[in-house]
Specification:
The chain has 12 helices and no strands. The chain has 253 residues and is mostly helical. Helix 1 runs antiparallel to helix 2 and helix 1 crosses helix 5.
């Protein structure tokens, strides 16, 4: 089980990237931000016990992402926020692009004072993003924590996260093919269409054996998620016992 990073956290990061790209219209902004906030803020701070119990933890499923984003059209004609979120997910099509995804998250944040001074000394112009997040905001903190955790990953941890993402994302292939007819069963890894693979199912089966099944049953839960869920349940029990004690004292007096 991963210490912190899971496929659902990559989904949230991808959706934040869609939002900061400036392609979420104002009519959909509140709904998208509410979805992000309810899943990024600590589980213990959520106001609704029903929301916490609905997913069995702080992780989200692909179905939850779809239901939260597909009703909202984006600023790109003919595309919903769901389409753009899928594009972000399927653009991570190799272990190398997974590293590039996390490396690029820094561009979503406002520069620190040190980075600002360094950029002033850099003569190479860079195109600013349409929106950047405060580094101390909830979203900014989540991005920085995710980047830090990924840099701590050993090679086998990164491989495990990559395989978990493939398994997690697999049910969306049909939706992705509607917008991208060239997509096929090997689209999850761009290297599979190159030599020596070239669509060779036998070699693919060797490299990616066992991607579906019990091995990935808990792929979307991290130890941090489990700790947050336990803290939430303990807090609920403490409030219940405190209320019970108060009622007993009220009856006695």
């Amino acid at each position: 089980m991963s210490r912190y990073l899971t496929p659902s956290k990559i989904v949230l990061l991808a959706l934040i990237k869609v939002y900061t790209d400036g392609v979420v219209p104002s009519s959909a902004a509140i709904a998208i931000l509410s979805f992000l906030s309810s899943n990024i803020l600590p589980l213990i701070a959520r106001s609704s016990a029903q929301d916490c119990g609905s997913s069995g933890g702080s992780s989200i499923s692909i179905e939850q992402l779809q239901s939260a984003t597909i009703p909202h059209p984006s600023a790109i004609p003919g595309r919903t926020v769901w389409d753009l979120a899928l594009k972000q997910l399927w653009s991570i099509n190799s272990l190398d692009t997974l590293h590039a995804f996390f490396d690029g998250l820094g561009s979503l944040l406002e520069k620190s004072s040190g980075e600002s001074h360094a950029s002033n000394d850099d003569l190479t112009p860079t195109k600013p993003r349409s929106m950047q997040l405060s580094r101390s905001s909830p979203f900014g903190t989540f991005i920085r924590r995710s980047q830090l955790e990924f840099t701590k990953h050993q090679f086998h941890d990164a491989i495990k996260l990559w395989e978990n993402l493939i398994s997690y994302r697999a049910p969306t292939l049909a939706f992705w093919k509607r917008r991208n007819p060239a997509a096929d069963i090997y689209s999850f890894d761009s290297n599979l269409n190159r030599a020596p693979f070239g669509g060779n199912g036998d070699l693919t089966g060797i490299v990616y054996s066992g991607l579906v099944g019990e091995k990935f049953k808990d792929a979307n839960d991290s130890t941090q998620d489990m700790e947050a869920l336990c803290e939430y349940q303990i807090a609920r029990m403490e409030r219940w016992f405190a209320l019970k004690s108060y009622l007993k004292l009220s009856v006695c007096h």
